[in-house]
Design a protein that fits this description.
The protein is α+β, with helices and mostly antiparallel strands. Helix content is 29%, strand content 38%. The strands form 2 sheets. Strands 4-5-6-7 form a 4-stranded mixed beta sheet, covered by helices on one side. The longest helix has 23 residues, at 31-53. It is globular and about 50 Å long.
Length: 154
Amino acid sequence: MKVTVSHQSEMKFEAKTEKGSFIIDCPQISPLEYFLSGIIACSASDMIMLPKQQGYEVSNLHVEGEAVRNESAPRKFNTLHLEYRFDSNADDTLAARWVMASLETYCSTINTIRDSVVITYTIQHNGKTIRENEKMISGGGSSVDFGSLQGCNA
């Protein structure tokens, strides 16, 4: 994976990837907000692809992330809480498994930060809270093979 960032004007930068490009407009949206958005989008894409591969459908998906950072430099993330809200035609157990498969195996961005950030999550499925403030186990990620996904993952 290769990304090139070029200064455009004032505090605007163009990020070019092997697949396309986009503008980073600081301070309108900070690089850290882009980073957090990427983490969330990674897991959200899993939440569409996993059910689809199993013959289920997810609708009304919203994933919200809230990070708490150091007060002083380096202002890295200390904690990250993810809240998954979605509806599906699956039972609550399977819905929770999709979230865990994303967090533990598929989402590369989450697995990149999991050793240095305390990650917790809440799941609301079909309007009901089925997991609340669960803590992700730190470590290098799970070696459980859930199969391959075709989506936004790189």
